[in-house]
Design a protein that fits this description.
Layout: E1 4-8, H1 12-23, E2 27-32, H2 41-49, E3 66-70, E4 83-86, H3 92-102, E5 111-114, H4 121-124, H5 130-133, E6 136-141, E7 150-155, H6 161-173, E8 178-182, H7 190-208, H8 212-218, H9 231-237, H10 241-252, H11 268-273, E9 286-290, E10 296-301, E11 308-310, H12 317-321, H13 326-330, H14 335-358, H15 362-372, H16 379-386, H17 388-397, H18 404-412, E12 416-418, E13 425-428, E14 434-436, H19 446-452, E15 457-458, E16 462-468, E17 471-476, H20 485-500, E18 506-509, H21 522-530, H22 534-552, E19 558-560, E20 564-567, H23 569-576, E21 579-583, E22 586-589, H24 603-612, H25 621-633, H26 641-646, E23 655-657, H27 663-673, E24 685-686, H28 691-706, H29 712-725, E25 736-737, H30 738-753, H31 756-768
Parallel strand pairs: 1-2, 1-4, 2-3, 4-5, 5-6, 7-8, 17-18, 18-19, 19-21, 20-22, 21-23
Antiparallel strand pairs: 6-7, 9-10, 10-11, 12-13, 13-14, 15-16, 16-17, 24-25
Helix pairs in contact: 1-2, 7-14, 7-15, 14-16, 20-22, 21-31, 24-25, 25-29, 28-29, 29-30
Length: about 775
């Protein structure tokens, strides 16, 4: 695997690639031009990146892995780089000149790639010597490189197969990318199809007189596309890029490409000239207007008049029908239906017509759109969801030509299928034959396991699956993976099962959801509050505490595998596991203060325990108490797994996986690696400061209150939290057990749940998905 990376060009993309390589623990050389004043452009780029949002660095300390320099004086720094990525201006002559200079500077085994998506590889290598040609490829990252999963890999006729395999393996396993190998065609796969979609969707919305809200609602959730849709997406990436991309596409595409028949969208040039370039400018198709009293109003641009007016939620009957699926939206029969059919029939036909020209497999088409544009389903999965027969027959009824690939899919019955013997998912090839979907070596898919086996145990909110080799996987199955009593019951049953049955020896907590867990089911909490079911609520709190303590003291290794959001109770699961194997993009914390309560399933106890027993903390009880108090009272969320390690939500036994597809396999391996000689932990006892420590924390909160950073109710909440973390009615000479802290948590939670302001916070969160500061 590579250890040192060179990045040439420190613009938004180059800086992002450099930062992501540093995130993965690699040494990076970042070179760019000299500024007019003689300083390095790369120096200022690095400083900007440390302030950027969304952050390119998973932790600011990663910036220390980057050595900056310039392209005039410092090419010698690339000598010992394993891989050098060129990310300079999209100008063929300038790139070729740089490659000529690099030939004398790079090591004999250094791989060189370009991040271009507009210049064919055959042109880039036209003046390159044969030795460098054999080590050259295109590695097209998507922006921002930290967050976007797709990497398109393009090889040339001279590129060594060993080079391609090294790049594929490294970008997959170390950088966490979904690597799709593409043919050397204009815009490769994702942008070729994605730009057709955006161009078609924008132009058709103008032609049909839709509102931007209607177009975005249709080009969003019903088709498994992010809620930005198309116009809000253009605002996000910048309207000023649209003419540049369009010009590049028109200059490089074949003369018969359907993209060339899409007319340019009105208004955009005028908007750019007036500074309305999207979020980075004055606004775009949407903008926020601030009134003199400070109130912000969202405005949207009329595609008919060009005027701005308050944004109105789309309410077409087709959009309502789209809650059931894309076909239902198209069949609803209104103007939105006609628009959706025009756009997505065009996209699917375009993808089918071009598939074998731009990709090596049909699978690559769907993966490129899912990983590059964050579509839930690529065009061929969309086709299956609507029905191949229905789709083809509708094309035929309109007198439109049917791409050969779609005719083959009609004969085959679908693009995707499941092998009845093996249970493996299959996809139709260019030849019309179904074959197993390719899964990289070392990847375990829970979906595949569920397809060929029955759960070991199951209830309404959770299931237990056999991963083989004596390892079980505990899966949350509730909506948004919210935690409830059924999950707690099955956790305790699972612990007893594994301790009883000799064939089982380890447990992984994992699921295939969009997020690991959003925390406790607040709907059930507010229901119990409204019905004044206090004994039921206390029982629910005790059930959760007992379940998590069963995990903590189980006689076998327990590994949690979080990803995305792991909030509240989801964070507490991780805190009670022996180890965590986390996705690099894990956002976790004890956020209960935002809904007017404190962590009640052992979160307070665990944050005290971890800081109290850590060699990283100063001696004495107060530093540990103060740090736990800071994190919990402010509802601090780690914005990466690396930050979670610093917060001690992840312990020293924990690991980080950059590729989400490899998370389950890595978690299983970590759990099984802990089996031999495993001994459950001993309960910890603490000496906490009691009333004196509580007074110190309360004074700090009052200072925040005086400065306007904390409300009256924040102060009240903080008092309950301070009481728990300092041990309640204790003194520093007394021993406080883990159970003592759990009892204090449970009491405080129930007290706060009876408060009107807590109930208001919970209700507000359920209604708006935003915290209420009352």
């Amino acid at each position: 695997m590579f250890k040192k990376i060179g990045v040439l060009g420190s613009g938004v993309m180059g800086m992002g690639i450099a930062a992501h390589c540093a995130n993965a623990g690699l040494d990076v050389v970042l070179l760019d031009m000299k500024a007019p004043d003689g300083t390095n452009v790369s120096d200022s780029a690095l400083k900007r990146a440390l302030k950027q949002s969304p952050a390119p660095f998973m932790h600011k300390k990663n910036a220390k892995k980057i050595l900056t320099g310039n392209l005039d004086d410092d090419l010698n720094l690339l000598k010992d780089c394993d891989w050098v990525v060129e990310v300079i201006i999209e100008n063929l002559a300038i790139k070729q000149d740089l490659y000529k200079r690099l030939q004398a500077e790079l090591g004999s085994n250094t791989i060189l790639t370009s991040n271009t998506s507009t210049i064919p590889l055959k042109l880039l290598t036209d003046k390159m010597d044969e030795a460098l040609k054999s080590r050259f490829a295109i590695t097209h990252f998507f922006n921002p490189p930290r967050y976007m999963r797709l990497l398109e890999l393009v090889k040339g006729p001279n590129t060594q197969s060993e080079v391609v395999e090294k790049l594929r393996s490294f970008c997959d396993q170390v950088l966490g990318k979904g690597v799709v190998e593409c043919k050397d065609s204009p815009a490769f796969i994702a942008n070729r199809i994605g730009q057709f979609w955006t161009g078609k969707a924008i132009r058709a919305a103008f032609d049909r007189g839709l509102t931007v809200e209607e177009a975005d609602a249709i080009n969003g959730k019903p088709f498994g596309i992010p809620k930005t849709g198309v116009f809000a997406l253009m605002d996000l990436v910048g309207l000023d890029l649209i003419p540049l991309i369009d010009k590049s596409m028109r200059a490089t595409l074949p003369s018969d490409d359907p993209y060339l028949n899409i007319g340019s969208a009105p208004m955009i040039e005028e908007m750019i000239e007036a500074g309305y370039t999207g979020r980075k400018g004055k606004g775009g198709f949407y903008l926020m207007e601030k009134s003199p009293n400070g109130k912000r109003t969202k405005l949207s641009k009329s595609l008919r008049t060009g005027e701005y007016s308050p944004s109105v939620q789309a309410s077409m009957s087709s959009i309502s029908a789209g809650r059931k699926g894309p076909r239902e939206l198209i069949e609803a029969g209104d103007e939105g239906s006609a628009y959706a059919w025009e756009v997505f029939s065009g996209v699917i036909c375009y993808a089918a017509e071009l598939a074998d020209q731009i990709a090596y497999s049909t699978q690559s088409i769907d993966e490129a759109m899912e990983w590059g544009y964050a579509w839930k389903d690529g065009p061929f999965k969309l086709l299956d969801s609507m029905g191949v027969d229905w789709f083809v027959e509708r094309l035929q009824a309109e007198g439109r030509s049917v791409p050969a690939l779609l005719s083959k899919a009609q004969v085959a019955g679908s693009m995707y299928s499941v092998n009845s013997a093996s249970g493996r998912r299959q996809i139709m090839s260019f030849e019309g034959v179904h074959a197993d979907v390719t899964v990289p070596d070392g990847v375990i898919l829970l979906d595949e396991i569920k397809r060929v086996s029955n759960p070991v145990k199951k209830n309404a909110s959770a299931a237990l699956w056999d991963l083989g080799d004596g390892c079980l996987a505990f899966e949350f199955t509730s909506k948004a993976n919210a935690l409830d009593n059924d999950i707690m019951v099955l956790i305790k049953q699972t612990v007893k099962l594994i301790e009883k049955e000799e064939q089982y020896k380890a447990l992984v907590i994992y699921n295939d959801g969009a997020n690991f867990s959003v925390g406790a089911n607040l709907g059930l909490v507010i229901f119990a509050i409204n019905m004044a079911m206090w004994p039921v609520m206390e029982s629910m709190m005790k059930e959760g505490q007992d379940a998590y303590m069963a995990l903590r003291f189980a006689k076998f290794p327990v590994v949690a595998a979080p990803f995305g959001y792991a909030f509240g109770g989801g964070c507490e699961v991780c805190l009670h596991a022996d180890a965590v194997q986390a996705s690099a993009e894990t956002y976790t914390g004890l956020v209960e203060a935002g809904v007017g309560v404190i962590p009640g399933w052992g979160g307070c106890k665990e944050m005290i325990r971890r800081h109290y027993t850590s060699s990283r903390m100063p001696k004495g009880p107060m530093p540990s108490v103060a740090k736990a108090f800071e994190y919990i009272s402010t509802a601090k969320v780690a914005t990466s797994a690396q930050e979670a390690k610093e917060m001690m939500i992840l312990n020293e036994k924990s690991g980080i996986t950059f590729n989400r597809s490899r998370l389950l396999a890595d978690a299983k391996a970590r759990a099984l690696g802990m089996v031999e000689g495993y001994e459950p932990p001993e309960p910890d006892v603490f000496r906490l400061p009691g009333a004196s420590g509580r007074a110190a924390l309360e004074m700090a909160v009052m200072d925040f209150h005086a400065k306007g950073f904390a409300t009256d109710y924040d102060v009240e909440l903080a008092g309950h939290l301070a009481n728990i973390l300092t041990g309640g009615e204790t003194d520093v000479v007394d021993e406080v057990t883990e159970q003592d802290l759990l009892d204090l948590e449970r009491k405080a939670f129930l007290t706060l749940a009876k408060k009107t302001k807590t109930q208001d916070r919970i209700t507000h969160m359920l209604e708006t998905n935003k915290p209420l500061r009352n």
